[in-house]
Design brief:
The chain is α+β, with helices and mostly antiparallel strands. It folds into four domains: 2-38 and 199-239, no CATH class; 40-192, Beta-Lactamase (2-Layer Sandwich), CATH 3.30.450; 255-338, Orthogonal Bundle (Helix Hairpins), CATH 1.10.287; 344-496, Heat Shock Protein 90. It is built from twelve helices and 14 strands. The chain has helices at residues 2-38, 40-61, 67-81, 113-125, 194-241, 255-305, 312-340, 352-361, 364-370, 388-405, 464-474, 505-511, and strands at residues 84-91, 94-102, 129-135, 152-154, 160-162, 166-175, 181-189, 348-351, 373-378, 383-386, 411-419, 423-430, 478-483, 489-496. A five-stranded antiparallel beta sheet has the order 2-1-7-6-3, with helices on both faces. A five-stranded mixed beta sheet has the order 9-11-12-14-13, covered by helices on one side. The protein has a two-stranded antiparallel sheet with strand order 4-5. Helix 2 (40-61) packs antiparallel against helix 3.
Amino acid sequence: MNKATNKSSVESIRWKLAVYLAFFIALVLLVVWIFQVYLLNVFYEHIKRKELVTAAEELMQSLETDSDELNALAYNLAVDCTMSVVVYRIEDGKAESLVNVDATGQTGMFLSDEVLKKYYYLAQKNSGSYTGEFTFGGSEVQGQRFPFFSNDSDDGHGVAVQSGNIRLMSVYLVEGENGSSHLILLNAGLQPLDSTVQILQTQFIWIAYILLLLAGFVVFLLYRRISAPLIRMNESAKKLALGKYDVEFSGEGYLETRELADTLNYASHELSRLDRLQKELIANISHDLRTPLTMIKGYSEVMRDIPGENTPENIQIVIDETTRLSELVNDLLDLSRIQSGTRKAEMQVLDLSAALKETIKRYDTFVRHRGYKITVEIDQEAWIYADRGMILQVLYNLINNAINYTGSDLKVTVSQTVIDGKSVRINVTDTGEGISPDQMPLIWNRYYKVDKVHRRAMIGTGLGLSIVKEILELHHAAYGINSKSGNGSTFWFEIPIIPTPMPSLDSVNTED
């Protein structure tokens, strides 16, 4: 089922690439066909009209010049634009031909007086200029022509007109300063483009075939370049799902596949680390649970089976081991509640110096019976805004950790220092073996043991540093460890201080 799903997914990439590229090519071909085939005659006629307008403007500026210059200009325009140029001077109702040049391959343009009057009135009626399509016989073509669909058009009188017999005529009436006027007639033949359209259509078909073949080749290359690393990563992911965390992901080719491979490699490394920590956690919890349970069971059986062994000392041992089990369960619950967010910090103004003194005082009995030396150094009073219960738990856990790992001199030092009047720093120092730099980031994990040999803690459950980490991060406090192998360790945390609060009237009256 998984193989079928993976195969269909890979094929979908190929087909989607093919569909997208085919759609893009079809769009490009459609645009090319519209502009080079369908609208070819439209653009051709537009260009011819623009040429007539430009030629008329140049002639208008040269009407009052010498006749030889006017003829030379008309000749150049006619040759360059393949048109006929006729200029008349109209004076006292008579038309005098000044220029008559034809470069269209015809015999020249000679108009009867009737046709000339027709063009004159058309220009006069249309504010001095008129452009239209006419047959060689002088009949104007009416309506919209589509020479790219049909070779025939209607001249407005029911007469079929061949597209090659249509001429574009521009008439301009220019009034002179001395009462005379000039009539400029520009005539350009609209050449039939049917053969050109057929050539372009044939080229278009070949271009479409070639582009489709190239598209197929490009799709094949892209498919191989994109899918090959994905297939390899998919196979590696299957191995990762089976618990083979040493698998490597490779994603050559594109930036996205390389980034995906790097992310999967990072995930594989983290899963491997978490798997190792989980196994250590299970082993260590099993050890911590097995020892008190074994002792509780052993002492209970002794008190049941042997007369006189039901002594207060044996009962106290059972009580102590039960207490240790309760502490372990409570620490696990506390850690889970903090990580899940169900245990919220109840922030309040807290005298950290007083809380530290209170914490150290609770170790008096332990110090007297076990011989430990716990000293405290406080430079000045410091107040913070924090959850009292959580901060006390941090202090207990750090001190307990120092007691468990201090050296043979059994010395633990706790100090409080105010830094620049902005924050307060708590240092808890032991004289133990210290921690190497590569192990420092790992000691905050559950049940991580530096020496990899689990030994039963003198005080606490082994979850203390994990709880410290979660609580301090909940308070947005800085924390860390300074240590060198063989020189002991100093665990510290730093939290912002607040101004010393003013005592309330109630407290002052109570003291009085």
